[in-house]
Design goal:
The chain is mostly helical. It has one domain: Metal-sensitive repressor, helix protomer (Methane Monooxygenase Hydroxylase, Chain G, domain 1, Up-down Bundle), CATH 1.20.58. About 80% of the residues lie in helices and about 0% in strands. The chain is built from 3 helices and no strands. The chain has helices at about 10-30, 35-70, 75-90. α1 runs antiparallel to α2 (about 35-70) and α2 packs antiparallel against α3. The longest helix is centred in the middle third of the chain and has 36 residues, at about 35-70. The protein is elongated, with a radius of gyration of 17 Å.
């Protein structure tokens, strides 16, 4: 079971909303909407994706990493390293 399984429906709902935002961005560009308005909507979509990423990361730390540590699994250090790398990617984006 993945760490986000219990929240899967909520994540899918949020991702569908973001998909709608991106389609809206495409329409805005097709309709030659003012640059700043397009950039504002891009910022909103980016923040929405970041919120999903933070939620998934929290679920990963709270479930996958915690479980590996509690089990004394040799994979625990690898799970922590994975999480650190994911955080690094998020910070760079």
């Amino acid at each position: 079971m993945r760490g986000y399984t219990q929240e899967k429906d909520a994540y899918l709902k949020r991702l569908r909303r973001i998909e709608g935002q991106v389609r809206g961005l495409q329409r805005m560009v097709e309709e030659d909407t003012y640059c700043i308005d397009v950039l504002t909507q891009i910022s909103a979509a980016t923040r929405a994706l970041q919120a999903v990423a933070i939620g998934l990361l929290e679920d990963h730390l709270g479930h996958c990493v915690t479980q590996a540590i509690e089990d004394g699994s040799p994979e625990a250090a690898g799970k922590v390293k994975e999480a650190t790398e994911a955080i690094s990617r998020l910070v760079k984006s």
